[in-house]
Amino acid sequence: MILQVKDLKVSYGAIQALHGVSFEVNEGEIVTLIGANGAGKSTILRTISGLLRPKSGQVLYQGQDLAKVQAHKIVTMGLSQVPEGRRIFANMTVRENLEMGAFTAPVGDYSASIDRVFQNFPRLKEREKQLAGTLSGGEQQMLAMGRALMIKPKLLLMDEPSMGLSPLLVQEIFRIIQEINAAGTTVLLVEQNAYMALSIAQRAYVLETGRIVLSGVAAELKEHPAVKAAYLGDVAHAG
After folding, report:
1. Alpha carbon distance 144, 46 (integer Å)
2. CA atoms of 18 and 55, how far apart (whole Å)
3. What does the pLDDT read at residue 234?
4. Are 162 and 66 part of one and the same domain?
């Protein structure tokens, strides 16, 4: 087991965002957290990454409690995040953005990492000298993913990778997520596009107002009446 979250409680001031969340991710899996806006999905990822501190509970990564580990040290342990909204460095080139992703990586790994990213994302190779802010939305998402992959993470946290993208680009991004996973990276995916997330994940957890209300095999949850009604709508019938 690569990640175990136990009874996690997180607050923003007086507002409690997570009410005792527990779940696990096994090595080699794609696991997805689905739920409406404000359910607590991004809060979970930020807590795992060390950007938020839990009120109580544990985040165990490869058996080690991350509660007191600083965020930049968590990255060196092989855990990286693709943030919601991409958060690329708009005034830097594509290549410079990728170099920023390699900031904590051992020096000798850099050229192999950048080659691997360009292999995953040929479009980034074509645009490596272009300013990141001039890229399309889909290309910026690829850049955010490529930047996170520069450390060759064991566990990749992805926060809403399909947000704001056309249906065609959404398909491409999810195909790339599957390829990254097939190459050996475990993925924890937070996604509002429940249909796509449940289509590629092995297992899933459904969050509502800071609590996990359903969990199971992703393909089975895709057929669950409550999940269909709340998150899939007409898409469930579109194939």
Report:
1. 16
2. 9
3. 47
4. yes
How far from 90 is each of 3, 102, 132, 135, 155, CA to CA, in Å? 32, 17, 5, 9, 26
Does the pLDDT value for residue 39 go beyond 80?
Answer: yes
Q: What is the pLDDT of residue 114?
A: 81
Task: Let me know whether 162 and 72 are in one domain.
Answer: yes
Residue 205, domain CATH: 3.40.50.300
User: 28 with 144, same domain?
Assistant: no
pLDDT, mean of residues 194-210: 95
Within this chain, do residues 144 and 193 fall inside the same structural domain, yes or no? no
pTM assigned to the model: 0.89
Domain hosting 38: range is 3-78+154-238
Q: How many domains does the chain have?
A: 2
Which two structure tokens, joined as six digits, stand for 231? Answer: 């998150």
Contact (CB, 8 A) for 186 and 155: yes
Which of the pair, 215 or 71, is modelled with greater confidence? 215
Position 235 scores a pLDDT of 46
Answer yes or no: do 163 and 123 share one domain: no
Q: Residue 88: what pLDDT?
A: 85
Domain match, 122 and 162 both: no
* pLDDT higher than threshold 60 for residue 238: no
